Q: What sequence folds into this?
């Protein structure tokens, strides 16, 4: 059997090889990894060579949607939450004929603050068959519970106000058009279940008064 003799590297050569490896690794980090993975190109070499084209920035909207989809804290809303209870009769004023003249068209941008742990209403006065476009968003995309509803304007004082719910949900944004089914106050009830105040920003265009 023949005996194998392994070469023994000198200490200086090992140190030199280690330093060269570190320099090559650092160069690859700056030229290739940072531009391609993180969009950081301090030397411009990543763009020159083409590594910068491999970087795909994250979509913040997609992250928001993912956060919304993963929000399982909101309770399921049942049909029984919509509108007045069964013991509140629909008033006769709901069937009044529409006026011959609608309110003047107007546009507004406004905001309301929903205090932490509390609810608040924001309503508009509209005539029967008045029209409106609306948009609202929340600060920091906070999710709020809301009930978009309307109350019939009644001639006399009533013990319990009749109202109908148009939409109830948990959301950070809503856009739509609205066609008032009767004269009265129409708008949103918001409830903030978080520990921080939330601002709701409105854009409105239609036949209403604030």
A:
């Amino acid at each position: 059997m023949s005996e194998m003799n392994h070469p023994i590297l000198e200490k200086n050569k090992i140190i030199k090889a280690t330093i060269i490896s570190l320099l090559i690794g650092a160069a690859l980090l700056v030229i290739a990894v940072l531009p391609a993975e993180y969009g950081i190109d301090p030397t411009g070499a990543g763009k020159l060579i083409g590594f910068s084209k491999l970087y795909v920035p994250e979509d913040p909207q997609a992250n928001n949607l993912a956060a919304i989809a993963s929000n399982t804290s909101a309770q399921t809303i049942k049909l029984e939450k919509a509108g007045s209870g069964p013991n509140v009769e629909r008033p006769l004023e709901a069937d009044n004929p529409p006026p011959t003249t609608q309110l003047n068209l107007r546009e507004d941008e406004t905001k309301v603050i929903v205090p932490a742990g509390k609810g608040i209403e924001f309503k508009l006065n509209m005539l029967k068959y008045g029209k409106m476009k609306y948009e609202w968003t929340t600060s920091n995309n906070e999710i709020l519970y809301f009930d978009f509803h309307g109350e019939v304007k009644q001639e006399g004082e009533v013990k319990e106000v009749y109202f109908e719910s148009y939409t109830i949900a948990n959301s950070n944004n809503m856009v739509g058009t609205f066609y008032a089914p009767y004269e009265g106050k129409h708008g949103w009830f918001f409830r903030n279940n978080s520990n921080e105040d939330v601002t709701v920003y409105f854009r409105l265009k239609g036949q209403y008064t604030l």
Observations:
- The chain has three helices and eight strands.
